[in-house]
Every structure is written in C-alpha cells, then in structure tokens.
Amino acid sequence: MNKRKLAVFLGKKVLTISIMLFFAVFITFFLMRVTGDPAELIAGPLAKEADIERIRIEYGLDRPIYEQFVTYFTKVMTGDFGYSLKWGRPVFQVVTERLGTSLTLSLSAQVISLVFGVLLGTYSVKKRGKWQSETSSIISLVLYATPVFLIAMILMYVFGMYLRLFPISGAVSLRGDPSQGIFYVLDVLWHAVLPITALSCWYGAIFFRVTRASVSEVLNSNFMLVARSKGISENTLYFKHALRNAILPVIALAGLYMGSSFVGALMTETVFGWPGIGRLMYDSILARDANVTSTILILGSLSVIVASSIADLIIFLLDPRVRS
Amino acid sequence: MSSKEILRRGKHLFLEFKKDTGAFVGFTGICFILILGVVGPFFYPYSPNEQSFQGYLPPSVGHIMGTDNLGRDLLARIISGVKVAFYFSFLAAGISLIAGLLIGSIGGFYGGWIDEVLSRVTDVTLTFPALLLIIYIASMLGRNMLIAITVIGLTMWPSNAKVARAQILSLKQREFVQASRVLGMGNSRILVLHIIPNIISPVLANSALQMGYAILIEAMLAFVGLGDLNVATWGQLIYSGQSSLTSAPWITFFPGVFIICFVVFCNLVGEGISKLRVKI
Questions:
Q1: Of B111, B103, B119, whose CA–CA distance to B172 is shortest?
Q2: Domain locations along chain A
Q3: Which chain B positions have a beta carbon within 8 Å of A27's beta carbon?
C-alpha cells in the first residue's frame, strides 16, 4: 500500500478529529451556560444572593463569556474537568475510576454482538425465503424495538429472580476480594453475564439488520455471479466473498454506536447496579452535578469521534475502492 | 392535482402497499393503536387518573390489564399514553424530517462550500450522542415534554440529511432537471417542485423508523427518571412498575408490549415505504 496516501489520510483524520473535538467541547460549554447559572448550582438551593455573587467572582464567572470559554477549553485539554459537586473530588478522578468497569461491560458486549450479528446476518441471507431467515428477522426486529432497559429487566426477572442463576446487582459479591485472584475474576464475570447479555441483545439486533441489508445488496453484484459460476461452495460464497464486501457499512456503524454504548451502559448499569460510567451519570443527574454530566457528555462524543475514526481507518485499510 | 387524481393515486398506493405483508401489518397496527387512543377514552369505563383502594390487582375481567400501585386502571393509563406516543413520534420525526430535508437538499443541490459546511455540521451532530444530550438538557432544564420532543427532533435529523443529500446528488444531473432549467425555472423552484417530490420516499421511510426511535428515546428518558411527570407516557408506566417488578410484573409488562409493538409497526411501515416502487 502507498505510504504517502496513508499519511495524507491520517493527517486529514487528525485534523477532523481536532475540529470535531473543539465543537464537542464548545457545544457542551454552551449547554452548560444555557441550562443554568453555574454559580447558583455551586452555591446550592439555600444560598443567599451575596454568596452567589461571591462565588461568581471567585470562580471567574463574572468575566466575559469568550474568556470563560478559553479558560474552560484549555483546562479540558489538560484533563482538568473541575470538581464534582456531589463527590467533592476532581471529576477526572471520579470518572476514570469508573471507566474500567464500564468498558469491560460495553466493549465485551460490542465484540460479542458484532460477531454474532454479522455471522447470523449473513446466515439469514443465505437462508433467505426459508423459515430460519424469517424467524431470525422477526426476532431481531422485536429485540431492536425493545428498550434496552426492558431487556435488562426481563433478563433480571427470569434469570435473576425466578431461576436464581445469576446475581441481579453489583459487580462483585459482598465478600469479593481482589487478592483471591482467579476466583475474583470469575466472580466479576458471573456478575457481568446478565448486563452483557442485555447489551448484546440490543446491539446484536442492530448489527444483524445492517449486515443482512448490506449482504443482500452485495448479492446482486457481478463479482458474486462470477464467484458462483466458478462453482465454489455456498459457505465460501457467503461468508468470504459476500461478507468481505458487505462488512464495511457494519464497521462504520459500529464506530458510531460506540457513543450509544454510553447510553446502553446508562440503562443496563442502572438496572443492574453496575458501578460504571452509566451509574455515575444517573447519580449525577439526580444530584444535578453539572461538572460530571458535562464531562461524560464530552467523553461520550470523544468516544464516538475516536471510534468512528478508527472505523474509517479500518475501512481505508480494507477497501481498495476507498484508497484510490 | 385534482382531488380525483389524489384519490386515484392514493388507492394505487394503498393497493401496492397491501401486497407487502409486513408493511400492511405495520400500517394496520398503527391504525389500531391510533383508534384505540382516540375512541378508547369514550368507551372504556375507567379514567386514567381515577384512584381506588384496589392497588396491584392482577389482570382480571374487571381490570383487563390490572391496576398499578394507586389502584389506577392500567389499560386506561395505556390508552391515555397513546396520545402522548403519537405526539412524540410525529412531532419529533416531523422536526427531524423538515430539518434533515432542508439541510440535506440545500447542501446537495447547491454544492460547493455550502455543501462542505452543511456536511461538516451534519457530521458533528451525528457524533454527539443524542440521548446523552437529551438527558443532560432534561436534567438541567426540567422535565418538559415539548423540550424533549424538540431536542430529540433536532438530534435525529443527520440521517435524513444524509439520505436526502445522496439522493439529490444522483438526481440533479438528470434530464428533467435540465429541462426545467431550460424552461427558465429558478433554483428554489426546481428544488421544491421537481427534486424534493422525487427524493421524498426514502426520507419518509427513514422518518417512519425515526418515529419508532423517538418512542424508544422517550421510554429511556422516562426510565432515568427524567420523563414529564404530568403525562402518563408508556415509558413512565414502565418506570413506575420497576420497583414492584417481582410482585406486580404486569405493570411493567403491558406498557412494554405497547412500546415494542409500536416500534415494530413503525419499522415495518418504514421498510414497506422503502420497498415501494410507486412514487408518493
């Protein structure tokens, strides 16, 4: 592959990422100022007018708005997101603590759903017109139409409360201890089964539907006709030739869905009491902790920007049509 | 177009639509829910806010879907939620349709720097996680349904804009556009009279999907406790049933079924429209 093309591509991507990041921070800042007076939020509901005024001056909120934005932007760039009003600690610390547990959940759900969704989607096209295809498309439609928290609640009800196979809340058992090594890991995995299943069902339905649409579109192209006339087996035809050409939109979509993985996390973590970013978001909403919620907002869009850039890079490396 | 012409085309459209089983099921389903919401309150004996001392009653002949914690009839509340669901889906999808069509078609049609700017705006909006945004705004500004609808509409439009733009790019070099230019029509006239009618059906198909999606977002919003408390939406009902999931699962179950059905129907209609060969 041409190295120069790759360099140009990466340069352009870095530029777009920085522009988009700037806008993400800008919109967040704008929202923070539009939706309420930060000085009043810091002071709390019982504060006197004089106190609010004092806080306003102390925090530099009486300065011109563009000056405030420049300060905010430079601080965000250096990783300083201010203090959490609820926890009284730096937001960065609070968020990074929770990031790991959330990523365990959403990344594994994404990988599982991507594998299953893509394979089943292709299989469903291969069996089109037969009952396998019809049933799987109905199931995927229903799963897509079910709010993810409802999937989580149903799983919790059936497997957690009725069959009592899995724990219904938390990430570790009450007596869980990190020093127990492999047992601790197994314990966390045991707790993660239901949340991951709930998330995977939701994403899986989406990936399934996109893969199916994309593969059936590829079926009509000429190279598929050639491949078929060469006499290769059906499995190679669908899972190699068709899928390799059809997977690109799925990858692009998976990049975009990284952002909604925060949303999915919010829903499942709330149902299962999983101590991650979603739960943090939920608690911060209730506490009206604007610093934390806005940080998560920036983090959410950052993850979409980065993930879709990675998706673009993968597409660039895989598809010669994009490169030329 | 005369009224007779519209009737003829409508009939043709309907017959074409009827051939597609999925789309037909979706369409009748949505009509059924709509009729339930409009006619239901006049015939159903319970009012949605009427409380009684018989809370947590399981489904029976008297209360078809049981009662909730305050003894309010669940079916009556679901029926009153139909109206809200239609508000939500139509208004949000409508805002998204208008904004998307406007931005996508202007960008695609005029090209050049306008297109460049509008495409960037679309990309930036697309990367902003819609639900996080709505949750943030709802948590700061309070639980207002109209604000929620507007924000949902204003975050959903990028996909409409992308669809419209792609369609216009392939259409604007076609003969009929050149012909109308030769006839002396201005840009805006060509756009409104000749191009938009030709690209509307994929955008409408996407809008039907978005109607369902708006309901899902509303349900999620209600689930985080940020729904409008003055209206009994389906999401709100699920939220209120969450705490009694073990003892009274029907409070969660029935509104959930309605949400799932509504979204499935919307998707079926959307898929039906995109398969349709007749012009709308």
A1: B111
A2: 3-77, 95-323
A3: 128
Judge whether B63 lies within some domain: no
Is residue B52 domain-resident? Answer: no
Yes or no, beta carbons of A304 and B128 under 8 Å apart: yes
Q: What is the CA radius of gyration of chain A?
A: 24
What CA dihedral angle connects B73, B79, B80 and B85, to 10 degrees?
A: 140
Give the number of other Cβ atoms within 10 Å of residue B35's Cβ.
Answer: 11
Among A179-188, A273-282, B154-163, the range with the most confident prediction by mean pLDDT is B154-163
B61 part of a folded domain? no
Number of folded domains in chain B?
A: 1
Which residues, in sequence order, are CB contacts of A307 under 8 Å at separation 6+? A254, A255, A256, A258, A259
Highest mean pLDDT among A310-324, B188-202, B224-238, B258-272: B258-272
- In whole angstroms, give the CA distance from residue A56 to residue B54: 53
Whether B225 sits inside 8 A of A19 (CB atoms) is: no
Range of the domain at B178: 3-44+73-274
Q: Report yes or no: B108 and B165 within 8 Å, Cβ to Cβ.
A: yes
Whether B244 contacts chain A with CB within 8 A: no
- For residue A166, the 8-state DSSP code is S
First to last CA, chain B: 13
Answer whether B272's CB lies under 8 Å from B20's CB. yes
DSSP letter (8 states) at residue B224: T
* CA dist., res. A254 & res. B205, Å (int): 22
In DSSP terms, which residues pair with A196 in a beta bridge? Answer: none
CATH of the domain at B205: 1.10.3720.10
pLDDT at B95 over 90: yes
**A90: helix, coil or strand?**
strand
User: In CATH, which of 3.60.110.10, 1.10.3720.10, 1.10.12.10, 3.30.420.10 is domain A95-323?
Assistant: 1.10.3720.10
pLDDT at A160 over 90: no
- Arithmetic mean of pLDDT over chain B: 84
Residue B250 lies in a domain: yes
* Mutation site, A21, A28, A153, interface B, largest B CB count within 10 A: A153
